[in-house]
Amino acid sequence: MALLAIGLVGALVTAYLVNLRLDVLLYARTVNGIRGYFTEGSGLKRTAVVKHVVLPSSTAAPAYWEPLYFLPVVISCGVLNSIYVAGGCYLLSSCWWTSSVLAILSMALQVVSYRLLASYREHFYLKMN
Predict the structure, then answer these.
(1) Of 2, 19, 21, 51, which has the highest C-beta tally within 10 A?
(2) How many Å apart are CA 49 and CA 37, to the nearest integer?
């Protein structure tokens, strides 16, 4: 039971890490929006702005779903958490098949939860009706 509890707590910590990352990206998008506001209102020609401003000025960047940058972090945490789930299930049931299936489901659930949280932030979070 302790191994299952550790796997569950690990999955919750992974979800917390994902939310922290998404908050960091929200902050970056906000800074980009402020930069865009001042560059658009500067009265300079677009070529002059592009010459001096190298950072993004769009609130759509950076993307919340980062398959090459942050997904490996989620997968690494998910593998460790799934090992605990598999170990706990195996010790309780002595069935390697059941523990393997639950470990794979645990891993998939953590990756899918990252994708759903990123999609929620992209399409619904802080959106006015």
Answers:
(1) 21
(2) 12
Tell me the whole-structure pTM to 2 decimals. Answer: 0.82
Q: Left (φ > 0), alpha (ψ -120 to 50) or beta: where does 2 sit?
A: alpha
For the chain, the straight-line distance linking the first and the last C-alpha, in angstroms and rounded, comes to 45
Instruction: Report the pLDDT value the prediction gives residue 89, as an integer from 0 to 100.
Output: 87
Under 8 Å CB-to-CB from 32, ≥6 apart: which residues?
A: 55, 56, 57, 58, 59, 61
Question: Among residues 31, 75, 35, which one has the least CA distance to residue 53?
Answer: 35
Three-state secondary structure call for residue 95: coil
pLDDT in tens, 48-86: 677 777 778 788 889 999 999 999 999 999 999 999 999
CA 36, 42, 46, 52 dihedral sign is: negative
Q: Which two tokens stand for residue 6?
A: 């550790």
Count how many residues are written for the chain: 129
